[in-house]
Batch of 2 targets.
Target 1
Amino acid sequence: MYKAKVNVTLRKSILDPKGKATHHALQNLGLNDVKEVRIGKLIELDIEAETEDEARKIADTACTQLLANEVMEDYTIQIENN
Amino acid sequence: MYKAKVNVTLRKSILDPKGKATHHALQNLGLNDVKEVRIGKLIELDIEAETEDEARKIADTACTQLLANEVMEDYTIQIENN
């Protein structure tokens, strides 16, 4: 069993309103040293596979078919052996 | 300038309906080797600080005061020097 940690983030060129709102809220709390906030998704998949390569392939298919919108988002996959 | 990568995940004991829905959607796509899905948040903070310790302290304050609900969620902070 492998665990795939998928990070999905908005591309740098895309405005991130959730991040902007969070940044504003942190400033209201007095945390003025925080200069930028961007918010993405962390998706953890438990994958039944023989090899790490196979697990990565399955995670990549999940990303392209469902988890990430490649027009607006980038994703990275990190595989851990459980 | 430091970059703090904050992962906020639901505690294991808390039901994750978004994850369940995603799991179901992946099964409908034929990805039956995915056995569990859990969804969390990835928050990237750009922090102006003198030292890594100071940056971590600011990120930790942001988590406890705003970003994570410690009753239901766990968080991890990873600091990178930019």
Target 2
Amino acid sequence: MPVYLDATDADFEAQFTALLSAKREDAPDVDEAVAAIIADVQARGDAAVIELTERFDRLRLTPQTLRYTEAEVDTLIALVPDEERAALELAAERIRAYHARQMPADESWTDEAGATLGWRWTPVSAAGLYVPGGLASYPSSVLMNAIPAKVAGVPRLAITVPTPDGQANPLVLLAARLSGVDEIYRIGGAQAIAALAYGTESIAPVDKITGPGNAFVAAAKRRVFGKVGIDMIAGPSEILVIADADNNPDWIALDLLSQAEHDESAQSILITDSPEFARAVDASVSRYLETLERRQIAGASWRDNGAIITVPDLSTAAALSNRVAPEHLELCLADADGLSQKITHAGAIFLGAWTPEAIGDYVGGPNHVLPTARSARFSSGLNVMEFLKRTTLARMTPAALRAIGPAAEVLARSESLEAHGLSVTARLKHLNE
Amino acid sequence: MPVYLDATDADFEAQFTALLSAKREDAPDVDEAVAAIIADVQARGDAAVIELTERFDRLRLTPQTLRYTEAEVDTLIALVPDEERAALELAAERIRAYHARQMPADESWTDEAGATLGWRWTPVSAAGLYVPGGLASYPSSVLMNAIPAKVAGVPRLAITVPTPDGQANPLVLLAARLSGVDEIYRIGGAQAIAALAYGTESIAPVDKITGPGNAFVAAAKRRVFGKVGIDMIAGPSEILVIADADNNPDWIALDLLSQAEHDESAQSILITDSPEFARAVDASVSRYLETLERRQIAGASWRDNGAIITVPDLSTAAALSNRVAPEHLELCLADADGLSQKITHAGAIFLGAWTPEAIGDYVGGPNHVLPTARSARFSSGLNVMEFLKRTTLARMTPAALRAIGPAAEVLARSESLEAHGLSVTARLKHLNE
């Protein structure tokens, strides 16, 4: 049974704060092991990657078989049934269309001092995408990571996807093909992150690494950060649903369960202004938990991390949601747009009862890689900006330097940086000669 | 004497690679000490911050004096001479105008399936800016960090600036006032970062921390990352100047020295197609190093990390520059704009001989907080985006769900996520009833 909170209870604040600060992730400390793996790959390159892949994935590779050939990819993706291929193609197309609108524009202007200012966006030269193997090998995540990189114009995009015991997922390879991925390596774990960051004889290094992974992958990404860029370190998934009584309790129950089934550490929260509706949703969740394939996982998540909060009014719901800063927020309300104006922190918002969160996982268009663990307070979901950087531009004319140079001289002096000031003074002196 | 490289030498590639991989930073490992400080502040709040400030800054504070009062700020900034005030005001105005153009737009559109998609930008609720004390207490850095936060709309902006032995820098306080900073605390070090991240009785926690600092501050920022957002961890400053023979060697020498004088670990590189010009610049640097106030620092930097590279042509210069991915790049060439089109990685570009890098440090408008240590390959300088996050929006209609829902059902099944699929199926079933 999930925890029930009532916003009008005297001790609500204490209970809600406890809910917010509950630690759901229990990642093992693998940092030492990961440091050793990274050092090994740095020192021995391919040989280390091959040995570690044999040890962890029970797969014997050579420098020649680290990477899939195009023919191997062709053979595997030919196994994908038409229905799944069509669904992936629709998803890819919609994700591409959404992310294409995120491309920022270069700017250049001349101001009243005569200075020409602006900036230019350029993509990273090479990006690496980590794709988990086994159970959590999701083709949709390949699309969500790879398409923004290609929309950004990244010329070289490599993915690593482990194939434990040689088991490949043809859908993952098809998703990579549809996204325009350039290189696919059959490696995983911290050794894959190290190979992407530092390079080996057979794998050229990249400048940016994104993608989800287990504790080893997360620790490796933290360690290579600085040498390369990384995306966020994702925690367990979360959903918060704000729903009034005019909803079908089964729909809301399934939306809550679609997060709960990801992971026992996942969290599903319902906020509603109707205690009756809250009980109806809870009852529906219980019924689905009798038959759901992943009922063990979903049941543990709902029991240990689930919460149902009743509120006197919907603007209290918005205020509580902002404190949660949920990864996914569903607003199943008549005036979903109105309430969404009050939302200041959320990774993604799903508006209205016809927008189940699962649509956003696959075919909506927006990215499903979103900030977890309350980090929507300060970060965004994956987007094309992750693969771009801004170079600022400035050009002075003699007149512009005459106008603003003296202020730079004064400030350089005040900061005791003499050469800074002299570099301006020397030029101004020339103008006055 | 700096290292001289000639791009036409047989062993140039080896020498250039060595230059690229030379480790300039020698930060002490203070991670354990920092972990203890953070734990102490988490456990004891104000009391810990006050004790640590007494120990490190020889300054006795109380919970009431941690924060400057408005009257104290008024008194201190009244000490700033008019000339410096006017220079700071001009800088603030130009930085604000530049960053205002970086504000991204919200978007919303309805696609052919009938889905309404888009995103909305919101600022972080509270940001903290670390300002170093003592020698490296730069008012210009306050402007460069605080103004983008305020342009982004951050409602609460706090700064921490240590005052060793009670020594405050009135210019820093004036810069904070001009930038619209809301709270100023007289604390520093890892304890200030911990207080901003976790909060104390007197200091409310923030969601994002930016700003430069020493090894303790950098280690503390790394540790609180995840709990809050942080900006990059800056390394020693760098400049790369590409200049042809039609330049005044003294101007270029001063531009190189204006990085070298920051720090012995700073790096200044000249790339030119003229060996004669290279020697003239080197000679000029030597002359300035006889008299420059910070000649010890600048001399050590130039001797240990400086480099002069001669190239057969300017497009070789651009290619080498892209491998360096410099923080600052000056193009002192007749066709600076043309060559800048070949630059793929640089934090900031200064175009033409009338644009000394020092202009960008103070009054140009673009930010002077820029990616160091080759990280311009994958990251940007500080900008308003650092203080904003994007919430994606999606709204389906029954018709839109009918159009794209079935693909989501197929993909959910292929990923063995049954509840995901059922949340769509339940709604589609209702439509077909």
